[in-house]
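Fill in residues.
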């Protein structure tokens, strides 16, 4: 009999306990993989060919305060600024609050030039630009509500006291296919033309120009009625994450509890298994098994059980979230939710370490017993 078959025989001797242990570890690693993926997605760098060139100009006092639309012409004259795009969060509701998705008032002529990672057929883009009440939506959003080109869509205003009706003229694809865009002029008209913009997005000529542009823009509007804060797209996104509180600390705390729970479950299982087999271990010693070989067998059993649970939990999380539409159930918070291979490897490695650690103490204790002491333990 080989060591592998011997270890497997010992694992399978109590199938119910082994299965329950594997399932417990698997569920714990599933939760841990989910938490780690949340942290990964919150810190994911924005994807796109021009991401590193984009800047966001917002009101220095608060994101809720808007900027004068007249700033657009001044921003366009700042050296090294290639493109200026006005974007305003509308925050409308489709039918009811459970159908939340991101919706923005934009400048249709510069939308896809500012965000080239999003692609749309040329004829649909022309239709969107030509019609005042036209709108475009991401592919995932369209699939979610089963919309078709030409459908009329009404958004109920929450931030703004207007309900707007749109005609879907385009469906775009790209890195984030969950947003809805419409003409900013249409919103301005409905509000009585207040001439306000939520944020201005700038595209720099090169990455080296970004620090100079940031200083130039904020200096330009310093001491004005609407001072600005200019930051990179990444910094702008991190600002939203900070609004959620200290998410990293919360996730780290929950993850520590999960790891401690796995350790307790595995340690309890191995302690019972080793204690019940004291007589067998004594017999193995009489057959010439030394301390190292006994430790290897006992810790190997624990590692295999923990590894099985780790693979079940981590790979299961990967498969589960590849099927489930996380974006829909998180109200658009996570347009992308992928359990990365690095997360899977880390979870599996952690499960093996926990398996070895949980078996170490009882295995060391029983390996130190003499044959007579081991036999007396059973009575």
């Amino acid at each position: 009999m080989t060591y592998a078959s011997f270890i497997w025989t010992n694992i399978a001797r109590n199938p119910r306990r082994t299965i329950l242990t594997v399932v417990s570890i698997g569920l714990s690693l599933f939760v841990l993989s989910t938490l780690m993926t949340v942290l990964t997605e919150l810190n994911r760098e924005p994807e796109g060919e021009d991401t590193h060139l984009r800047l966001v100009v917002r009101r220095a006092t608060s994101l809720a305060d808007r900027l004068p639309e007249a700033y657009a012409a001044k921003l366009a004259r700042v050296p090294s600024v290639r493109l200026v795009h006005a974007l305003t969060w509308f925050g409308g509701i489709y039918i009811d609050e459970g159908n939340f998705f991101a919706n923005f008032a934009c400048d249709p002529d510069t939308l896809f030039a500012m965000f080239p990672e999003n692609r749309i057929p040329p004829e649909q883009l022309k239709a969107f630009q030509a019609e005042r009440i036209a709108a475009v939506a991401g592919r995932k959003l369209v699939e979610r509500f089963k919309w078709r080109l030409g459908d009329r869509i009404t958004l109920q205003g929450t931030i703004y006291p207007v309900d707007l009706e749109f005609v879907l003229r385009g469906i775009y694809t790209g890195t984030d296919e969950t947003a809805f865009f419409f003409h900013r002029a249409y919103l301005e008209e409905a509000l009585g033309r207040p001439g306000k913009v939520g944020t201005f997005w700038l595209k720099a000529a090169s990455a080296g120009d970004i620090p100079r542009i940031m200083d130039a823009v904020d200096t330009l509007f310093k001491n004005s009625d609407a001072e600005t804060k200019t930051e990179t797209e990444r910094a702008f996104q991190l600002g939203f994450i900070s609004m959620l509180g200290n998410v990293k600390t919360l996730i780290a705390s929950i993850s520590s509890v999960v790891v401690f729970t796995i350790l307790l479950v595995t340690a309890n299982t191995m302690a019972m298994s080793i204690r019940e087999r004291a007589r067998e271990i004594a017999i193995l010693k009489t057959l010439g098994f030394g301390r190292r070989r006994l430790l290897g067998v006992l810790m190997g059993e624990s590692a295999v059980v923990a590894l099985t649970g780790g693979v079940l939990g981590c790979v299961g999380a990967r498969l589960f979230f590849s099927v489930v539409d996380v974006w829909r159930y998180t109200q658009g918070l996570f347009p992308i939710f992928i359990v990365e291979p690095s997360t899977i490897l880390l979870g599996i490695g952690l499960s093996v370490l926990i398996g070895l650690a949980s078996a170490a103490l009882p295995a060391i204790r029983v390996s130190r017993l003499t044959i007579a002491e081991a036999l007396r333990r059973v009575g």
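The two ends are 29 Å apart (CA to CA).
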